[in-house]
Amino acid sequence: MSAEPAKPRILLADVRRPRSEPALVREAQRGSADAFEELFRRHWRRSHRAAFLVVGDASAAEDIAQEAFLAAVRALDRFDRSRPFGPWLHRITVNRAIDYARARALRPEAEWTDAAAGSTDALDEISAELLTALRELEPDHRAVVVLRYVLEYTPGEIASMLDLPRGTVNSRLRRALDRLRPAVTEEER
To answer: Is domain 19-188 classified as CATH 1.10.1740.10?
Structure first.
């Protein structure tokens, strides 16, 4: 009689469930590199895409998104865990992107990179016409459009993120949409 090899027992503790964002933040605040890496994986794509759509340069957007994550790590001890991590990180990212875009506007020789040179992740479902129209907006207007229609924050959340009155956010959105309308209309044809 041959003995069958023992089947390995799978313990409930061995089955890894995805950790909640508040749990990851708590672990990251305690110094867990794994927890911060998981937060990075969850938020990288959206942060990079937001930065790219504000600055129009894939390389700069990558730098900005990385700097935003580093800034978040440095300030994590001051982060209010009762609030979601994503909006806080996106606020840091978009503010850095606005600062970069403003500084670049002071250097007229600096141009947006060709859309083909950008990251395909950053350009998913965005037509060349719409991207061109976005480029023509002021950085502050681009930022509210990206936060509202790409990252899907409410105007109230955007106002809080950018420390602006809600009326200012609504005004910037309206002006930006009025300028983008021809590109959007063209895209729908």
So the answer is: yes
pLDDT in tens, 12-66: 544 456 788 889 999 999 999 999 999 999 999 999 999 999 998 899 999 999 9
* Ranges of each domain in the chain: 19-188
Q: How confident is the model at residue 5, as a pLDDT?
A: 62
Structure tokens at 111: 């141009």
DSSP state string for the chain = -PPPPPPPPPPGGGSPPPPPHHHHHHHHHTT-HHHHHHHHHHHHHHHHHHHHHHH--HHHHHHHHHHHHHHHHHHGGG--TTS-HHHHHHHHHHHHHHHHHHHHHTSTT--PPPGGGS-HHHHTT--HHHHHHHHTS-HHHHHHHIIIIIS---HHHHHHHHT--HHHHHHHHHHHHHHHHHHHHHHH-
> Cβ(39)–Cβ(21) under 8 Å?
yes
Phi, psi of 155 (to 5 degrees): -55, -35
- Write out the two tokens for 52: 């790219």
Token pair of 137, please? Answer: 């907006």
What is d(CA 179, CA 107) in angstroms, rounded to the nearest whole number?
23
